[in-house]
Amino acid sequence: MPAYNPPLQDIRFALRNVLDFDNHYASLPGAEEATPDTVDAILEEGAKFAREVLSPLNAVGDTEGCTWADGVVTTPTGFRDAYQQYVDGGWPSMVQSEELGGQGLPESLGTVISEMNGTANWSWAMYPGLSHGAMNTLEAHGTAEQQQAYLTKLVSGEWTGTMCLTESHCGTDLGLLKTRAEPNDDGSFAITGQKIFISAGEHDMADNIVHIVLARLPGAPSGTRGISLFIVPKFSLDTSGELGERNTMSCGSIEHKMGIHGNATCVLNFDGAKGFLIGQPNRGLNCMFTFMNTARIGTATQGLAHAELAFQGSLAYARDRLQMRSLSGAAFPDKAADPIIVHPDVRRMLLTQKAFAEGGRMFLYRCAQLVDLAHQGASDEVKAAAEQELALLTPIAKAFMTETGFEAANLGLQVFGGHGYINEWGMEQNVRDARIAMIYEGTTGIQALDLLGRKVLGSQGALLQAYTKQIHQFCKAHADEPRLSRFTRPLAKLNKEWGDLTRQIGMAAMQDKEEAGAASVDYLMYSGYIVLAHFWAQAAVAAEKQLEAGEGDAVFLQAKLFTARFYFERLLPRTQSLAVTMLSGADNLMELDEAHFAL
Q1: CA distance 499 to 322
Q2: Which residue among 71, 356, 458, 586 is buried most deeply as judged by most CB within 10 Å?
Q3: Domain 288-442 is of which CATH architecture?
Q4: What 3 state SS string does 131-190 have?
């Protein structure tokens, strides 16, 4: 597995030069502590932890995996100690409110730390990552008593959290779930049922695990309207709030998976386990969306992580691996052959990885910035605008960044050739670990339906129009700058086409609802390429500005401009084929009779 070195120069460029986080933090009420010096110190310490503690454990986690015996799960060597270092460093509490024992820093800073931790060791990073979603859910929907009992220990990192949605007969369609919640005399509920695919559902890294569980009350309406949400701790609490008896729930097994072996993916059996209602009865899915939206942005982070790790490993290998000569003549005549980085196809793969990783970083940080604004914006108008933009961008970020992250991981294996296919180099692990990201927290197809059906057509185009207006204003502001025209002109053209295609699909869907489903994935990927183009164009503007002022690292900035050019000329044209396929209609998918699928 390649050693991970956090790309702090690019992280700072995205934060400061592209997205202006210094002024962003200065504008946030309650974010006074997030000064540039403080942010720099946090980035340095976070990078050190990811590089020195987590990265060396990545291959260990894959090789050893988690072990299960009689309901007890043991994590790989070093995982527990790393988590204790994480807790001792105060990382779990960094972005939580001070009233709950947190440090009160902006949530976006936590996203940057999560990116570094996840790239260093995604399996390990899932343990505290899922706790973050549990904290957000309890903070948004829990009572004061529930927050005091459970949230403070989650904030400190003493306990971890999960979300328990999936059952063997229902994945995305949660309306089919069978787990039931029977009222107890003391106001609690007896939770009975089985949940599967529960990441970090059982482990030895913390004293307690707080499960956020979907279940159905007696007499509840059928479907998603009859789902409620419950806190179900691994250990119940006694009257003083300390750990009491083991709850009547157990880990029945752990899954044998393609990747992320270092994270325990569990079957959890609830046998009348004591639970406590969160929010209103039969409104559990609404509450759970707080967790799910956090997880979807977290999964976008995973796409970025695998792209970055693939790029770092590929680049180091391509510089060292000698193979053939450059087609234009020996580039290194003193060597037996040239390094493979001289070959155009290897450069195509490296630049694709680089474009997706660095572009995805800007995309992710913008989503994190919007989370800050939605929670802490200076006015209701600012909060509402941030929520609307985030609603549009979240399904794109989750699906597009995981699809391109997997593509980048595959290219990493390809750069290594035969060596990539064996496990000593770690590139095949990166591919295996990356593959799940397109599935959990809503598959690419589910995100596409959410984007096109609910967010775009469901808002009658309002969410999309607000975003395309931003792109239009950006292109207009830089229209008279010749050196930027190679970015602004194609972006402006595609921005207009985006609206035109949306209207065509919307009109077709009014006649046949299947048209939206048939177009949705192509539409999402098309949207993702345009969104990423917007960020790459902004990066080009920022790089040109620094170069003109004689500031910054000229080599880094020139590389940024070159990568932007590569993205616009080599990757953005993929939108052309996607535009054709999304308009090809539902007939080429739906007219074939089911019987004709038989072999």
Answers
A1: 48
A2: 356
A3: Up-down Bundle (1.20)
A4: HHHHHHHHHHHCCHHHHHHHHHHHHHCCEEEEEECCECCECCCHHHCCCEEEECCCCCEE
- Return the H-helix or E-strand segment holding 129: helix 122-141
Which of these, 531, 492, 516, lies nearest to 401 by C-alpha position?
531
pLDDT at residue number 291: 66
Average pLDDT (302-330) is: 96
Give start and end residues of each alpha helix (H) in 321-379: 344-376
Please tell me what DSSP assigns to residue 482: G
Tell me whether residue 441 is one of the annotated catalytic residues: yes
Fill in the DSSP letter of residue 75. Answer: P
Domain positions in the chain are 288-442, 450-583
In angstroms, the first-to-last Cα distance of the chain is 41
Q: Which amino acid is at 6?
A: P
CA angle 257, 263, 267 (to 5 degrees): 65
Chain-centroid distance, C-alpha 416 = 26
Structure tokens at 295: 């997880």
As a whole number, mean pLDDT of residues 383-403 equals 97
Q: Residue 322 pLDDT more than 80?
A: yes
On the CB side of 54, how many CA atoms lie within 13 Å of its CA?
31
Q: What is the pLDDT of residues 50-74, one digit of tens each?
A: 999 999 999 999 999 999 999 999 9
The reported pTM is 0.97
How many residues can be counted in the chain?
599
Judged by phi (left if over 0) then psi (alpha if -120 to 50, else beta), residue 237 lies in: beta
Give the DSSP letter of residue 33.
Answer: T
Strand segments (E) across 248-337: 249-254, 265-278
Tell me the backbone φ, ψ of residue 260, rounded to 5 degrees.
40, 50
**How far is it, in rounded angstroms, from Cα 133 to Cα 494?**
35
410, 429 in Cβ contact below 8 A?
A: no
